[in-house]
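Entry type: protein chain
Record version: 2
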Amino acid sequence: MNRRHTFPLTLTALAIAAAFPSYAANPETAASDAAQSQSLKEITVRAAKVGRRSKEATGLGKIVKTSETLNKEQVLGIRDLTRYDPGVAVVEQGNGASGGYSIRGVDKNRVAVSVDGVAQIQAFTVQGSLSGYGGRGGSGAINEIEYENISTVEIDKGAGSSDHGSGALGGAVAFRTKEAADLISDGKSWGIQAKTAYGSKNRQFMKSLGAGFSKDGWEGLLIRTERQGRETRPHGDIADGVAYGINRLDAFRQTHDIQRKDKTGQFFSVEGESESKPVAKLAGYGKYLNNQLNRWVKERIEQNQPLSAEEEAMVREAQARHENLSAQAYTGGGRILPDPMDYRSGSWLAKLGYRFGGRHYVGGVFEDTKQRYDIRDMTEKQYYGTDEAKKFSDKSGVYDGNDFRDGLYFVPNIEEWKGDKNLVKGIGLKYSRTKFIDEHHRRRRMGLLYRYENEKYSDNWADKAVLSFDKQGVATDNNTLKLNCAVYPAVDKSCRASADKPYSYDSSDRFHYREQHNVLNASFEKSLKNKWTKHHLTLGFGYDASKAISRPEQLSHNAARISESTGFDDNNQDKYRLGKPEVVEGSVCGYIETLRSRKCVPRKINGSNIHISLNDRFSIGKYFDFSLGGRYDRQNFTTSEELVRSGRYVDRSWNSGIVFKPNRHFSVSYRASSGFRTPSFQELFGIDIYHDYPKGWQRPALKSEKAANREIGLQWKGDFGFLEISSFRNRYTDMIAVADHKTKLPDSTGRLTEIDIRDYYNAQNMSLQGINILGKIDWNGVYGKLPEGLYTTLAYNRIKPKSVSNRPGLSLRSYALDAVQPSRYVLGFGYDQPEGKWGANIMLTYSKGKNPDEIAYLAGDQKRYSAGRVTSSWKTADVSAYLNLKKRLTLRAAIYNIGNYRYVTWESLRQTAESTANRRSEDSNYGRYAAPGRNFSLALEMKF
């Protein structure tokens, strides 16, 4: 095909750009000189929905994806959304869920996440479990979004609080849910969409069914989506040939005194039983074996006093139990495979509205999404190793009945003030030691919307006005179960301590966190123009009444037995009176209520935020485009809780941009913007530690964090496609971090004593710079004889920290620049048949290794590293294709890591860093963080 075409305006180019907005700055918006085109009005309407320049003139740092893009990229979860977007990463939290996104060197609550303009839950973690048995309370997760409900997602890199409010320091991710029109084909009044997909890397199966209608002014939709999956599997050869040999403790009966031939061992009797029984001893106790039993056996042999068959049997039973375990069955810190996880989610999205008068729309929305991540922590040893023998060695070994293993147990060595000495009388050796972590999320939203659209009549007061009210509640429930109640090697998550299982034990360490938002938003848009200029004004108002509630729980059960020595029986053997096991129920909470810094009661913070914003996108002649905007926020936090921060925060943010277009093929852009983040609810609650502060002591006040963003970009566009190169600088000030600060507090005698107070402080300033490259080549535009639809995409991002300074007098205990992603290149080659019947592409990704200097920071005058290891460079290749059948059926398939390379991404390995909410221990086998080997996904879409 030799016909020439103008890349920004052909239907084919528009279709390609709509399908690949993550690689292409949507041509309809990238071509800001589209005023020269006859299709100006249509392009403007499309840009208002998905354009990179819909909010500011330059489009720098913007990525916009539509539902069509998500389908084409086969996005089955949050980790797929930014797979080919260098500079944007998912924050892994170590327990299956995620902690939001990482952009421009910051992450979690420093990257704003919203759905239809409503902020999502903040990452919340406390510093330790109530029971003190390890782990942290709270998941640290940000609720994930159901992507089958999403119409568009805008990823904004760089400070952007003038558009997104508090939290948009490094950037923002804003989702918009589908409307009825997204499900209805042109010319129809109703539509049905069904989708089924499968991803092999985590064995996720997804099914979604949606229906929409538009009739006589009424319109609505209903979408139901369900997902079920498992943990993400690492590379297949990680566990090849891996086997573990363990030596575990057990019990044996001391029927013989091996030191003296033909002499019986130690026996005892129990009141109510007619026969005496041998005492239970610890099998595998190295001190006893090496110093006594095995030495006695050797001496007997040397003295020509061979052991009898019964004695030999007892000696064998006294040795440690050796087992060879597969990589799948092994439990312990050196486990190479990830923890098994059962993932399930279910989501409803419903909308119903009515259009009247040609300009007005009134509607409502309901969303309900549930997600659950049920994990067994396989780094918790199921058995008791020989290195743990000492804690069982002083037990008497008496038991009733025939199960002699009931005679061996241990009492956890926990601080007495926590009450464990009273709650846990003993945990039996014979039970499997298991740990389960259940994390459940639920998000519910109900909202009302009024929309006024009047673009056809430019002399009216507004082209568009939107008034909305949303009531949203998001809750996370994190429950850590520790169970010692199923006899080894059995594992039973449903087992609990009971009287028929002496020294059985169960413990639940639970943390509930909930955020509620009542959000009222209003926006007004108006376009103005004269001979020389064109303006598009947006005025916004908003009010958010919020509430954060945190509530810890801890409950345990122990089937304790009271044994009492009553002297000797007729055979001069020890005699015991054994009480029947009684289940003791208790909670650590009952022993720490006197500590004002940590109570097992709901704690609340009430918040309110009022904001007003004004934004103007305007052009002067055909050579200059501008954008200028500002926002004012006033937030109040109040609480009646002791040792919880409150206060008022007033923040101002702004953005500006200019585009110079000397000709239709080249432009120069400059963008400057600011961001802020008020202290999160977690930071307002403060550090939870086992310490009682003096009466009247207050936590140190916190200021809002600030960010400044500067970017300059060059863009070329034409028949060949487009290329954009930009350079950016970001500076962050008053960053909040956990640190120790020497403070003088009165001791029990009233004398001032200097101690380290660990809490949140405005502790750091930092700056970074980087480069971003984005491009797309239309090979038919380069050479007309090449097929139309043949293209190449490219993307590159590099971030380099420039400076980090710590506030004097603080010794940092958290946060470094470990959120900075290594440099990454993404190159794609593809073809889309011009009529959209089929297409295929290959994506090549290369990532550099993580720089060790980026995980280093100073704690006082000591240099520390936030993680024990960094990643090496890696590369991978993916192929995908789609086929449309009769316009109603689309089949999609993809193969990822087709070369079956073995590599580890920094995002995965970062689970070992200090900033991870559920950090893995340093002795973890790093192979468990390897990316999946060759894997595939399949999807079938149907539209009627």
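Comment: Residues 1-48, 593-597 have pLDDT under 50 and may be disordered.
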